[in-house]
Write a structure and sequence with these properties.
- The protein is 59% helix and 2% strand.
- It is mostly helical.
- The protein folds into three domains: 37 residues; 82 residues, Cytochrome c-like domain (Cytochrome Bc1 Complex, Chain D, domain 2, Orthogonal Bundle); 89 residues, Cytochrome c-like domain (Cytochrome Bc1 Complex, Chain D, domain 2), CATH 1.10.760.
- A two-stranded antiparallel sheet has the order 1-2.
- A hairpin with a 5-residue loop joins strand 1 and strand 2.
- It is elongated.
- About 6% of the residues have low confidence.
Amino acid sequence: MKGLVARRRNPIVASMLLLAALLGVGGVYAVATTAAPAEAVATSDQTAIDEGKRLYLEGCSSCHGLNAQGTSNGPTLIGVGAAAVHFQVSTGRMPMAAPAAQAPEKPTDYTEEEVSQMAAYIASLGPGPAIPTAEQLDYSDADIAEGGVLFRINCAQCHQAAGGGGALTNGKYAPSLMEATPQEIYEAMLTGPQNMPVFGDGTLTVEDKQAIIAYVMDLQEAPSPGGLALGRLGPVSEGLFLWAGVMAAFVGIAVWIGIKAR
């Protein structure tokens, strides 16, 4: 027994035990991190993945690299998940026509099937947020008032309280949400595109996301009881309307009165 204790106290033996423990932990971590991609490939349609890879190589690899590893012109796509691909490509933000401060929304060049195929390919490269299910997008029972509170706390600083969007720094902006679909809103919260932070389920639960979607959908359908909505941008657009519209009308009336008085 004393000999065994002595061997354990030996610095060489202690170092060997520490090295073995580190190798064991590293091996377990490697297995854990590679299991998810392997499972994704096994459970996905391999034909869709292959077609998605072909589409990726044609339209995306020049910026993101042949293996989606990223380049100086575009970040890596490994681990971004299918939801990020679906949001960016289905809204036309990707592929970008040219480098810019922010990718603008535009008509997409891909069909919904092609977008899904590219999303499947990127998802096969590493674990990431999946495209939300119909159940997750169902906001029929969500609390609109609660969604308004959550929106004003988490989103209004950039998107404005009425969802009209707003300017940020260095040519960037928060887009208007007046034409956004529930899926786009959910995927944006899930993936944090452009300058938007990521609101994972640990920050905003599925129910919270549904409530925010319900609030935004209510904003899209709400009438303007005060007359012209003027984009619902607040005092900026209202003040501009007064100076450019009303004051111009007053000047015109004054000129007309002067002419008639001659």
